[in-house]
Amino acid sequence: MPDIATFPEVHGHRGCRGLRPENTLAAFRHAVSLGVDVLELDVVVSADHQVVVSHEPWMSATICRTPAGEAITRAEQLRHNLYAMPYALIRQYDCGLTQHPAYPEQVPGPAHKPLLREVVAAADAAARQQGRAPVRFSVELKSTPEGDTLFHPTPAVFLALVLAELQVLGIASRTTLLCFDKRILQQVRQAAPGLPLCLLVEDTKPLGAHLAELGFLPEVVGPDFRLLTPSLVANLREAGLSFVPWTVNEMADLRAVLAYRPQGITTDFPDRLLALRTSFV
């Protein structure tokens, strides 16, 4: 097990999805108040090219309601396509009042899908209020080849919008870009070679095959924590790669992942991981 000096960074997944509605200002503020090191969040694009914080590029039937307050069925959720809506309309939907059924500890409350700039402003204000250093950001671009021009722009356009926003906000120096879509990471390496990148992995394909497809070594690999084995960790270390597994929630799993000494751990319950860190003080 690590000691306090080597304890991994605490990455709040979608803010702190287990405690507050995901990817909302309430979740990010609460995660900062708990003491996370990094806020993990997802971005998509609106019809008017605003960078919106949302896991899906549509209004999820699980957590969102229409501007009229009506539930959205799973059969119709794709029709509530964020890439087909101006942000002014997106903002009228509520994605906080409906408690996620998988997270009974979550405290619901009215919440819109915020812009990336709103999240940064809220997180930085919360850090200042606590007298602590600003948090860092892990920003996942939600991109797939199948979604091009349907649910999001093509990689070059998507990336240009995000990089422009990072520059305006002045947070590139404390941001890592994450993606499963290797095309996005390849575009970043060309357009912004100094920006740290994380390749997200959720399948059992060998690490070497993923890296060969990518064509370069990213700064970080983000595997589904269930993929972790001594062999995979040895391969990551041999390649000189840091790793930040996701999404680790149960105490037994957190302890097991800690034994691998990752750079960070992404969790819906940062309070649980922070409690373990406290025990090392």
From TrEMBL:
InterPro entries the record matches: GP_PDE_dom, PLC-like_Pdiesterase_TIM-brl
GO molecular function, one term: glycerophosphodiester phosphodiesterase activity
Keywords: Hydrolase
EC number: 3.1.4.46
EC class of the enzyme, as a word: hydrolase
Record's keyword annotation contains Hydrolase: yes
Pfam families: GDPD
PANTHER family per the UniProt record, alphabetical: GLYCEROPHOSPHODIESTER PHOSPHODIESTERASE, GLYCEROPHOSPHORYL DIESTER PHOSPHODIESTERASE
GO biological process: lipid metabolic process
Domain GP-PDE intervals: 8-277
SUPFAM superfamilies in UniProt: PLC-like phosphodiesterases (SSF51695)
Domain of life per record: Bacteria
Gene3D superfamilies with a match to the protein in the record: Phosphatidylinositol (PI) phosphodiesterase
Name assigned to this protein: Glycerophosphoryl diester phosphodiesterase
Organism field: Hymenobacter luteus
PROSITE patterns per record: GP_PDE
Keyword Mitochondrion: no
Spans traversing the lipid bilayer: none
